[in-house]
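User: Could you walk me through two proteins back to back? I'd like the raw sequence and the structure tokens for each, with a short line separating them so I can tell where one ends and the next begins.

Assistant: Of course. Protein one, sequence then structure:
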Amino acid sequence: MKEVWYLECVNLFKIICPHLYKDYKETHTFDAYKKKDYVYFDDDASKTVYLINSGKVKLGYYTKEGDEVVKAILSKGEVFGEKAFLGEGKRNEFAQSVDNSTVICPIPVDTLQNMMKNNTSFTLSFYKLISFRIKKLERRLEILLFKDVRKRTIEFIKELKEEYGNSLLNGDTLIKHPYSQKEIACLLGTSRPSLNIVLNNLRDEGYLSFQGKEIILKNAKVLDS
């Protein structure tokens, strides 16, 4: 079962983007970012929620030792910076463009509040989105702390299966996902060569095959190993 069921019934962009509303259309603008441009930094004032129109955005933070920890990589239609809506005073993470053509819809918190007053359905979905995101990030950080690279990779494949998997006639599962191997390695807190070793081992063991942004899961037991 897909955990994001509540998003499948709501087109976030058609509801949340101020550009689609008469009262905001003339004053609303989109922001464009190149690869490695920051949308915001840790400790920046938290007054805006962001919706991705195109491209990808990386969320993360730096440890005291200066190491980067990636919390999430988001793509078109996804929301970030939503803790501003919950009263967050300052950011506790950074947001950085991953692509050279990332376009983002910035929504000031007061604008979002006004837009949500008369839309109960979206308000409920938005709060569920925040709850889901928090649980997902907590789960990923727990995996990073307590599991080795192979187990972290398997857990990530399980998440991909839930969100992007489709059953094939022969019983296999086709997973078409939006991540490059470099991005997956960042999310798992490992190197790309280490990730490749794990994926090659899983392929050699007959569990899956992979190419580009596609994984064919041949044996679901890998998810329970």
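----
Protein two, same layout:
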Amino acid sequence: MTELSLRALNRTLLVRQMLAERSPIGPLELVRHVVAVQGQEPNWPYVGLWSRLADFDHDELAALLRERKLVRSTMIRRTVHLATAQDFRWLRPTVRPIVHAALRAPYFRDEIDGIDHDELAAVGREILAGKTLSRSDFGKLLAERFPDRLPRRLAESVEMLVPMAHGPETGEWGRWRNRYVTMSLADEWIGDPMGTEPDPEQLILRYLAAYGPATVADMQAWAGVTRLAEVIDDMRDRLRVFTDDKHKVLFDVQDAPLADPDLPVPVRFLPAFDNALLGHKDRRRMISEEAVRAEAASLLGFVAPGEEGKVVVTDHSGARQP
């Protein structure tokens, strides 16, 4: 098997993430290509798309949310992302286990202890049917049916159980810290029924096209799901196989480009938790191990090419991290 150096993996990722050269495609196509764009804070997707697209105006993204072509919701890694409406229909069922697992954490468990999850989900769907409500109002209505519980936690619990779509105003530029979240049932918002079965093969193929070559552990870390090795075993005849500098097996789709390790690349400005930074369990192709330990991936900073796939991250004070 061909061994790929860290620098080759770095340049390949930059090319596939459209960071080596800004792309002429539109924002909807960009979001579809990377599968889901980190959107925990409303401003982050705007920065990520601006760094990747040749001609981007922030109202283009806002318009896609208003037109319901994009969905803002909880999905991969149990965090808020943006995905195309059609992708969300299969993506949310595929990552359902990691989303539902949130309810076992003390943050949720202690507040909903003793409540039947199916009942909570059914009541939530009943209350939201045909409506768009703020998270606050939704929680208050749930508390009328489940008294002596924290309304906000009830609302957030239903979000883990039932696919939701946040209102377009929630994802507007400047809506920092999610101070006003509105929500609707995802199937009503999209206008098509949600998928009911996971589609791990599509998850793997779409991930590899934008983030590969990658290990099974990388795929699982990006999506937040497990047991993908079993799926990969059934797909091996459709995938290319490489190894990295530590002799770990990397998988890739057949037609995706591999970049020249010596490809010159520019400095790009990336938001916190950008896809390119959190797309792998082994982040060395983008960030040195020392920087990962220093939680450099959570900084909003400048990212520049470095030796053997390392980057330079500067925090708000301008301090350099390796």
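The longest strand covers residues 70-74.

Let me know if you want the two compared in more detail.
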